[in-house]
Design goal:
Layout: E1 2-8, H1 15-25, E2 32-37, H2 65-74, E3 77-85, E4 88-89, H3 91-99, H4 107-110, E5 114-121, H5 130-140, E6 144-152, H6 162-177, E7 198-200, E8 205-208, E9 214-220, E10 223-228, H7 239-258, H8 260-268
Helix pairs in contact: 1-6, 3-5
Bound molecules: flavin mononucleotide.
């Protein structure tokens, strides 16, 4: 069995790295334990060529994305730990997420891999969307998120000290058993994806900013809760939606080929205006 620790922070010996190492310590010696620092990988931006859509095709860009995909494919369990950078997850996560279109059609290969998420942040209430960015990353690879936790930790080492250490050990336990160790929270989390970003409407309806799951707000006995249809699988991260997404993209590709000439005509109207400014240009 193989456990993979993904570190979404460039800081050597930083909180994300230490969380991963602490978590790996709680797995039996028979397990193969590996780590990848995402910022060490060379990952180019997605070029929107859509060449990767067919199952098994992969991305045409020759960089470290194929290596990462293969490492995730080979892992049985994954811990994803990352830092908050300006109210969200580290950029390396977004860059890889954008490229993850190349595994959309292969989503079944990744199903069933347990994953836990650990997000560190350094300023109280400045964690922004870090947890949500990491949920999206994991779900783009169709990983099964067993548990997640936020770590208030500024200096390197604080994430594995005091109460935080107990939290890391809880994550390790959840990941090892594949069953979330129950914890108390007074936050209303999206029941579909676990995200905290909910859009509230005047008519009492709520919709998750992340996965588009929806339902109704209920106020009973001085407590708010989220009512939802547990049978509804049409939220962004469900396998049903992944199948639908593949179909839509294939359809758009066909439509593009059909309408290529008209679209070229529109583009031609703008082709002579090319005042791009590049570093090193002199006036
Ligand atoms: C460029 C940069 C931006 C940051 N932005 C935030 C932020 O928006 N909110 C926050 O709470 N902490 C922020 N931090 C602090 C880190 O998230 C925090 O120190 C975390 O523990 C670092 O994890 P690491 O040691 O794994 O890198 C930022 C740190 C850096 C270097």
């Amino acid at each position: 069995m193989r456990i993979l620790g993904l570190v979404a922070s460039p800081r050597k010996g930083g909180n994300s790295e230490l969380i991963v190492k602490e978590c790996l310590r709680h797995f039996p010696p028979t397990w193969e334990k590996c780590m990848i620092r995402l910022t060490d990988l060379k990952i180019a931006y997605c070029k929107a060529c859509y060449a990767c859509l067919p199952k098994g095709k992969g991305c045409i860009l020759k960089d470290d994305m194929a290596f990462l995909v293969e490492q995730i494919r080979q892992a049985d369990k994954i811990i994803l730990a990352g830092a908050t950078y300006i109210l969200g997850g580290h950029t390396s996560l977004k860059c890889i997420r954008d490229r993850s279109l190349c595994v959309l059609a292969d989503f079944e290969d990744f199903a069933g891999k347990d994953c836990v998420i650990a997000a560190s942040y350094g300023l109280k209430h400045w964690d922004g969307m870090v947890k949500e960015d990491m949920i999206t990353f994991a779900r783009e690879f169709n990983l099964h998120i067993v548990d997640s936790e936020l770590f208030y930790a500024t200096l390197p080492g604080e994430a594995v000290s005091g109460e935080n250490l107990t939290k890391v050990r809880r994550l390790a336990e959840s990941l090892r058993t594949g069953v979330k160790v129950q914890t108390e929270t007074d936050e209303l989390l999206c029941p579909y994806c676990g995200g905290r970003g909910l859009r509230i409407h005047q008519d009492g309806k709520w919709r998750c900013l992340l996965c588009a799951g929806q339902g109704t707000l209920v106020f009973q006995n001085k407590e708010l809760s989220l009512d939802y249809d547990s049978q509804d699988s049409f939220y962004h991260f469900s396998e049903e939606t992944k199948r639908w997404h593949i179909q839509i993209l294939e359809e758009k590709k066909r439509l593009f080929l059909q309408e290529k000439d008209q679209l070229k005509e529109i583009q031609r109207r703008y082709q002579d205006f090319n005042n791009w400014v590049l570093p090193g240009d002199t006036k």
